[in-house]
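Let us work through a complete example step by step.
Step 1: write down the sequence.
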Amino acid sequence: CQVRRCFWNWRKRINLFIFLFLIDIMPLKVLIYGPTQSGSTRIFNLVRMIFETKKMSVFSGWDIENLDLEYDVMVSKNHDSNPDYLDKFDIKILCIRNILDVGISRQKRILQGSIVIDEKTILDSCLFNINILNRLKDTPDLITRYEDYSINEIRKIIDLLPVELNVLEIIEIMRDLDRM
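Step 2: predict the structure and record it as tokens.
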């Protein structure tokens, strides 16, 4: 376990060095994607805030096409992508959530909090999101579950990124996210 941790630390330092070298040429492109109501907005804001905490210039938005390359990082969010579009990104994080919870949450959002349950709408939402997941399941660098949101899950995301955060920085970002 010590050897693996030592190797991982060196690998992360090498990745950070490569990133800092390449940042002058091209910005890092990160995509957060997944079905609607799967927690992708939370992870999108989390990744954006991680880079902002490290004083990197970040563009965050839906469409990163045809932008100036003045940014260190570009973070994009998408709900229904095709694999060709995904190839434009350096890091891809797929957000998932219990498929029934997604359907219920989506219906509540559409009906603006109403407690009316329409099984057909929920079923259609579940089938639509299952189709998205089946099409995109082989493309991510990391799959993160809405139900597993924690410091440990955030560390997995940070391990993909060319930054390092301590526990206090992670907790501060989590607090800021909760206030949003």
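Step 3: interpret the result. Residues 158 and 164 are 7 Å apart (CA to CA).
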